[in-house]
Amino acid sequence: MESKGYRWSRRAVGFVALLLVAATVVLGLWITPPDIVQGQLVRLIYVHPPVAWVAYLAYGVTSIGSVLYLWKRTRNLKWDLLAASSAEVGVIFTGLTLITGSIWGRPAWGVWWTWDARLTTTALLFVLYLGYLALRRVPADSHQRAVRSAIAGLIAFIDVPIVHQSVVWWRTLHQSATVLNATLSPKIHGEMAMTLLLGFIAFTFVYVWMLMHRYQIADMEQSVLDIELEQLIEERQREPESYSDQAVLTQDVDQIDQPSKV
Amino acid sequence: MWRDALLIAAKDLKIELRSKVTMNQILPFAFVVLIVFAFALDTSPGTLEKVAPGLFWLAVLFSSIFSVDRAVAIETDDGAGDGLLVYGVDPGGIFLGKVLSVFVQLFLLEIFLLLGVVVLYGPKIGGLPLMVVSAFFATLGLCAAGVTYSQLATGSRAKQTLLPLLLVPVASPVLLAGTKAWQDAFSSATLLGDPWLRLLIVFAVVYLALGAIFFGSILEG
């Protein structure tokens, strides 16, 4: 069951997330000026990079959860549930990254999609983790599922740099990172940079809030399974008393099987 | 582990020699793929010639899905894999044996398929050393990733649809690098300087290592 502290911290995180997103919206849409080159289009920058960052963060958390489950000393089903919840949120944010990128790409580049390295990697990342989620749906007991999905999650994560390197060599068109570039000197200034930074923080809070919710649901699902299992075991333990009933039932069935004799 | 691997590979190849699934089903399928590619694209000279390496590796990728599925299905039927574990066969050995057996089958399939590509698409083939070496590592990587994922997806009633969803995105660097390495080979680039070959080697090594480490947990888990 959900503890009181967990519930309150979840609500607090949700409240902060709401405030920060509202502030980002106000700053992004009204306070900040349009860009000299991109005009109003620049406002998408307060959403698109933060959403992409959350997707990477989510997959990072999935990988950490997977490692902690696979490592026998820290093995606990909670890590598996955390990895699964984070992957699910990550897939949503990867989808949002692709959609917001497309919306920006259409007016900026003239196309909805271009075969640039980062776009292609993101699309493959989306499918990779959809596969991870599909694998989790395979019927198995919790431990078996946890081991398998932890391995699949780790392999997917290790695959990301390989995929990225291959498509970078294939073709590169995307503009380089704006804030986290090699020299760490941001290429944008003043209130625009502040709004972007606020966007990053706001969406991180949104992620944490969604993760807490999803984890809670996963935890409750697991509890339901455990309770059902306990009930089944109890029923099985009570079974010897009803053996005689079963014998009568079998006899009846035998009689039904041979009606021609009657 | 290596002895177990060789035993498993020999066993699987013997099963293939007797059942001829790769020979009679997967190889013809790969040929059909080559033919329908020509329907989907343009048969005018130049088009198919240009895309021949990509189509070749795409046909190999499709075939590999069936091959690895079959290699793992041999052990899941009648719980044969559990039997192997009870006998004390090393899980890493089972993995390497499976990879070796699928590798041999796929490599032979590629030779036949290349003949088909030469006849049907008519590309100018060149740079044989780079072609062979890159095909070697590309196939190894495909088999290693494929056997791992095929074992991961075991137990699913929807395995036939789950395996491609898992394997194709993971193996996409092999498709890309294999195609590019062959294009480089056709325009006669040097063997060791090719970055795509290096990528194929990295992929093969990473997935062989991951498979050998995790296969035991997947089997027992």
From the structure above, extract its key features.
heterodimer; A: 262 residues; mainly alpha; Four Helix Bundle (Hemerythrin (Met), subunit A); 7 helices; 75% helix; disordered C terminus; B: 221 residues
Structure overview:
The complex is a heterodimer of chains A (262) and B (221). With 262 residues, chain A is mainly alpha-helical. Chain A has seven helices and no strands. Chain B is mostly helical. Chain B has eight helices and no strands. Chain B has helices at 2-19, 21-40, 47-76, 80-86, 91-121, 128-152, 159-186, 195-220. In chain B, helix 6 runs antiparallel to helix 7 and helix 6 runs parallel beside helix 8. The model of chain B has no long low-confidence stretch (mean pLDDT 87). Classes of the chains: A mainly alpha (262), B mainly alpha (221). At the A-B interface, helix 4 and helix 5 of A face helix 6, helix 7 and helix 8 of B.
Brief synopsis:
The complex is a heterodimer of chains A (262) and B (221). Chain A is mostly helical and 262 residues long.
